[in-house]
Each structure stands twice: as structure tokens, then as C-alpha cells.
Write a structure and sequence with these properties.
Helix content is about 30%, strand content about 25%. Helix 5 (about 140-155) packs parallel to helix 6 (about 170-190). It is of the alpha/beta class. Strand 7, helix 6 and strand 8 (about 195) form a beta-alpha-beta unit.
């Protein structure tokens, strides 16, 4: 089953002689349960592409379908709701809420809905955060903070999880742990994942690797 479909996606900044095509006519698809890595150097357009896939930014032209939904046919309010419920986002710098503890950060996307306790407990245990649920982000290591952001991304069972350089701010040991967690979420929870990285070694855990250069898939 096709979870993600991208058709002729373009993102242009500037006009005329100053125009820059950060994403240049990209098309591809991702099947349910697939783990896809998109690799490229700094400035290749990979992070811009990920933001377009997640509805964080709007394309100049082209289509993005998630579970058959044309996300850019939605207005700003509806796309925000869709993103919160159907897209899990993991950022390089965690983006946790500093005044919320581990459990509160993980359950933030639930929109006030109380998550199933057994599911939440299992997720927290899988993340290795059982003894940290009442800690604030500034009381956690970088690796632990990224574990919280993975939990937050998974809590709503999203259609797709998008990871933007998830190990880029971590030491090698923490990076290995986060990579293993992503692999586990793909295998244990059958989570569809698209991961952006400049590290080809990390990308090798994926089922498929796409390379982007100068805004194009090559």
C-alpha cells in the first residue's frame, strides 16, 4: 500500500536571476512499512524536501499525497491538524517544550486526548525513559531528549515518520542508540519512515536510499 506519493515537487526561492530551485521536479513514492533514507550534502535540498513532505512548508508547485490525501489542497488550519495526527516529525535539535516533562512532551500531540496507558507505558519502556518520565528536557542528555522526540512522533501512530538529521547533534554512542530505535520502530511498530541524513553509514539501515543533489534526485 502506497503511504506517500510525491509528484513533480518544486520549491523555488527568489525570482528572475536570483531564483534558486531548492527542490527541482522531484517525484517518488513510499510504501507502507518502508524505511527510506534520503542522503545529500549540506545545501542539497534534502531538509527543504522533508519540510514539504510534512506540510511544514508549501511547495511552489507539485503534489504531496499522504494516505491518498492531497495535503496542499487543505487550508492552513486543516493542514496543521493533519500534520499533528498523521505525520511524526523528528528534528536534529529535538524541539521539546522546556516547561513540560518527558511524559507531557511525548503526549503533546494527543490534543488533550488521554492515550492508552498500556501503550504509553510500553512506548516509554521501549525508549528507555521509564526512570525519566517526570524530568524536564534540561535534565536529560542529548540522546535522551531525542528519545523523547521519537516518542512524541510515534504517540499518535502516524501514517509516516519524518526524521531530519536525527543523529546530527549527538555523539557516536547516542547516534547508534537513536538509529537502533528508529530501526526498532520500523520493525516492531511497522512504522513507515523517511529519514534525511548526510551520513551514508547511517542511511544503510534503511530499506532504500535516495540521493539528492542540487535539488534533484539522482
Amino acid at each position: 500500500m502506497e503511504i506517500l506519493k510525491v509528484e513533480h515537487l518544486v520549491k523555488q526561492y527568489g525570482k528572475g536571476d536570483n531564483a534558486v530551485l531548492a527542490v527541482n521536479d522531484i517525484s517518488f513514492s513510499v510504501e507502507q512499512g518502508e524505511f527510506v533514507a534520503i542522503v545529500g550534502s549540506s545545501g542539497s535540498g534534502k531538509s527543504t524536501l522533508l519540510h514539504l513532505l510534512g506540510g511544514v512548508d508549501r511547495p511552489t508547485s507539485g503534489k504531496v499525497y499522504i494516505q491518498g490525501e492531497d495535503i496542499y489542497s487543505l487550508n492552513s488550519d486543516k493542514i496543521a491538524i493533519f500534520r499533528r495526527r498523521q505525520v511524526g516529525l523528528i528534528y536534529q535539535f529535538y524541539n521539546l517544550i522546556p516547561i513540560l516533562n518527558v511524559k507531557e512532551n511525548i503526549t503533546l500531540p494527543c490534543d488533550g486526548r488521554t492515550p492508552d496507558k498500556s501503550e504509553l507505558d510500553e512506548l516509554i519502556n521501549t525508549l528507555g525513559l521509564k526512570d525519566r518520565v517526570t524530568h524536564l528536557p534540561n535534565e536529560l542528555s542529548g540522546g535522551q531528549q531525542q528519545r523523547v522526540s521519537i516518542g512524541r512522533a510515534l504517540i499518535n501512530h502516524p501514517a509516516i515518520l519524518l526524521a531530519d538529521e536525527p543523529t546530527g547533534n549527538l555523539d557516536s554512542r547516542s547516534s547508534d542508540e537513536i538509529v537502533e530505535l528508529l530501526k526498532l520502530s520500523n520493525q516492531k511498530y511497522k512504522q513507515t519512515i523517511v529519514m534525511i541524513t548526510h551520513n551514508l553509514e547511517i542511511a544503510k539501515i534503511a530499506d532504500r536510499i535516495l540521493r539528492i543533489e542540487d535539488g534533484r534526485l539522482v
